[in-house]
Design brief:
six-stranded mixed beta sheet; seven-stranded mixed beta sheet
């Protein structure tokens, strides 16, 4: 095991801290780096469901996640004037069932970071170069410093720099599903109480949610457009794109867009899937969205990350450090699970954003269809026991 014991993990989202936990538990020595200067607070609500629940239970954090759950008790559809069209219980509104639990992304990452005490974690750090050899991987950091590792894991998200550095362009495919998505925190000026309110019309959707913190609310935008955002990584351009797209949309849109400028956790991206035949190359592996994004609206991105991290570390342990064998098993075991959840992402994409306003009949039919498919996709793998 000594030849690959020293492992660099890039990205402190969901997959990165999770794989660090399991690697350390299985006797390896991971180091975690993250480009951001700190964990981004808030963020969209994420559902931990299906086999991912078994994983967080094995990590001993399921109760913590439940204690930090979003506590959204009511989902409400409104029209452009704010009139109530339809209401559902919070669990059904978000397609949750059984032991499923929703938690804000920032809270989940914080819980995961707390599980890796003793693992070196370096924020405001990134890599500028990767050079592989038969014996190790030479990594060049932003300050010009170089270090050698047995393996490198890219858990650095949809726009993974690791993927671009290591894999050829013909070895991965990014498919934009035609939607854009944004989420950010604003003051809870509507005084929502454990409630999510959603207005959807003409291929656009806006929602406002308030749960544990009565002073704040999470605003979310999702929309389909033929217009192209040329510089998708520029925040000023992103916000202008939102304002132009949702101009005169109705409901509380103007007020929410006005408050957007003062938000300190603005997030915006395309709804995109990553397809790859193999998530490994040489001594480098990809985890989570970096290798198999199912899209934010699938509701399964974090669960793919949790499962992928567990399987990756477990197979490395089972192979006794033989990374060739471990990488092969990692690709083999996850294939059907990833495929099912990416199909779910396409289904949700096709079912979201109606042309007219959402009636009770449309909402119930959509909920029934998606809940059935979510249950199947979330359990489309039998988790090995690596202990």
């Amino acid at each position: 095991m000594s030849a690959i014991n020293k492992i660099l993990v890039i990205g402190a989202g969901i997959a990165g801290p999770t794989v660090c936990y399991w690697l350390k538990r299985f006797g390896f020595s991971p180091t975690l780096i993250e480009r951001s200067s700190k964990i981004r607070k808030g963020g969209q609500g994420l559902d931990v469901r299906g086999v991912a629940i078994d994983i967080v239970k094995r990590m001993g954090i399921y109760e913590k996640i439940c204690n930090m759950r979003t506590q959204v008790e009511l989902g409400r559809y409104v029209d452009a004037r704010g009139n109530i069209l339809h209401e559902e219980k919070g669990e059904r509104f978000a397609f949750r069932q059984g032991e499923d639990v929703e938690i804000n992304r920032g809270d989940l990452v914080e819980i995961l970071i707390q599980t890796i005490e003793g693992v070196p974690c370096h924020f405001n750090q990134w890599i500028d170069g990767i050079k592989q050899s038969d014996n190790d991987v030479e990594v060049q950091f932003k300050d010009g410093r170089t270090e050698h590792y047995g393996l490198v894991i890219g858990a650095d998200g949809l726009h993974s720099k690791t993927r671009r550095m290591v894999f050829n362009e013909d070895e991965y495919k990014l498919t934009n599903l035609g939607l854009y998505f944004s989420v950010f925190s604003i003051p809870n000026y509507l005084n929502l109480n454990h409630t999510e309110v959603q207005f959807e019309a003409n291929q656009k959707l806006i929602s406002l949610t308030s749960d544990k913190n009565p002073k704040m609310a999470e605003a979310a935008f999702c929309f389909r457009t033929q217009n192209v955002l040329n510089n998708i990584r520029d925040e000023n351009e992103q916000q202008k794109f939102l304002r132009d797209t949702f101009q005169d949309f109705g409901w509380e849109t103007s007020k929410i867009l006005e408050l957007m400028s003062d938000s300190d956790n603005f997030y915006f991206d395309s709804v995109t899937q990553v397809e790859m035949k193999s998530w490994t190359k040489g001594r480098v592996a990809l985890l989570g969205d970096a290798g198999y994004s199912a899209s934010p609206i699938s509701g399964q991105g974090n669960n793919l990350a949790l499962v992928g991290a567990y399987v990756f570390a477990g197979e490395l342990k089972q192979a006794g450090g033989n990374y060739h064998r471990a990488f092969s098993r990692y690709n083999e075991l996850l294939h059907s699970f990833v495929e099912a959840n990416q199909k779910l992402g396409i289904l949700v994409n096709e079912s979201t954003l109606v042309y007219g306003e959402v009636s009770q009949e449309v909402a119930e039919e959509r909920s029934n269809k998606i809940m059935q498919e979510v249950e199947i996709a979330a359990n489309m793998i039998s988790l090995p026991n690596y202990e």
